[in-house]
Amino acid sequence: MLADSHGFSGFSTNDIDAARRFYGETLGLEITGSDGALNLHLAGGGRVVVYPKPNHEPASFTVLNFPVDDVSRTVDELTAAGIHFERYDGLNQDERGIMRDRGPTIAWFLDPAGNILAVLEDPAAS
């Protein structure tokens, strides 16, 4: 029924201008806007809508994953751009916040609204 629909995901923010700067300038994504929301254009044609919500509460789970060919290099580049990587109790993460022992190599960070994002290693991402 929906096999041919170009689905997309979305999540909220409490500051659309901060989100525009973060996703566009810091992360380097192509951003367009409509009706007060942002469209994040992802490689491969995917799209995510970030919309303003006055009573926004950050998601307690990862809302957006970015597959990369080298998590260590990407973490270094994002850290140099001012991004702080999260450390979670009970996970075996190194000093930079990278977890390597369960599933793909992965590291988590927050957007300005506190939503959880991740970079995860996928050699096919290059």
Short description:
The chain has 126 residues and is an alpha/beta fold. Helices cover 17% and strands 31% of the residues.
Mean pLDDT: 94
Order of helices and strands: EHEEEEHEE
Largest sheet: 4 strands, mixed
Kindly report the spatial arrangement of strands forming the biggest sheet: 1-4-3-2
Continuous helix count: 2
Q: How many E strands? A: 7
Strand content: 25-35%
Distance between the termini: 33 Å
Note the overall shape.
globular
Low-confidence stretches: none
**SSE-based structural type:** alpha/beta
What is the chains' assembly state?
Answer: single chain
Helix content: 10-25%
Cα-atom radius of gyration:
15 Å
Could you walk me through the main structural features you see in this protein, from its secondary elements to its overall organization?
The protein is α/β, with parallel strands linked by helices and 126 residues long. The protein has 2 helices and 7 strands; from the N terminus they run βαββββαββ. It is globular. The model has no long low-confidence stretch (mean pLDDT 94).
